[in-house]
Write a structure and sequence with these properties.
By secondary structure, this protein is of the alpha+beta class. It is about 25% helix and about 25% strand. The strands form two sheets. Strands 6-5-4-3-7 form a five-stranded antiparallel sheet. A two-stranded antiparallel ribbon has the order 1-2.
Length: about 150
């Protein structure tokens, strides 16, 4: 995002841990996300894109024995092992996944109600010998590929 030709960060964050590393608020937006101005994105698309950044950043700090899960604030939805994320313009974000017991789950949420807590969830025992599943990196890669295939709308 640029204002008068000067690159500016998308947000702001302060941490007690000086070794925490940069967070999505402290990093420039990836080119694929910065290509379309925020005011041309629906609330759902903009929330979806930022969720990708938060999930990817969280996964960067996980060891091989944990995967990202989400706890949903303000309800009794429990914890969801994140296996997919989507949006439906103009204002719906959806989370696909499973509960710790393996039950398939999908949460459909209006962007005005969006409150999630990222959690490190132990990987299922039967998957311990496999590579960790990093949904944030997959979402980011697919988003970039979609943006490359879409003509510039500026």
């Amino acid at each position: 995002m640029s204002v008068t030709g000067i690159e500016r960060l998308p947000g702001h964050a302060v941490h007690c841990d000086h070794d925490a590393g940069p967070t999505p608020e402290q990093k420039p937006l990836p080119p694929a996300m910065a290509r379309k101005p925020v005011d041309q994105k629906s609330p759902a698309q903009w929330a979806y894109e930022r969720l990708i950044l938060y999930i990817q950043n969280f996964e960067e700090k996980l060891d091989k024995d944990h995967e990202v899960a989400m706890g949903f604030v303000g309800g009794d939805a429990g914890v969801l092992r994140v296996e997919g994320l989507g949006y439906f313009d103009p204002d719906i974000v959806t989370f696909y996944g499973s509960e710790m017991n393996g039950t398939k789950t999908q949460l459909v949420q209006h962007v005005s109600q969006l409150n999630v807590m990222l959690k490190a969830m132990p990987r299922p025992t039967e998957e311990k010998d496999e590579e960790p599943y990093r949904i944030g990196f997959r979402l980011a890669r697919e988003f970039e590929q979609d943006q490359e295939a879409t003509p510039d709308t500026k």
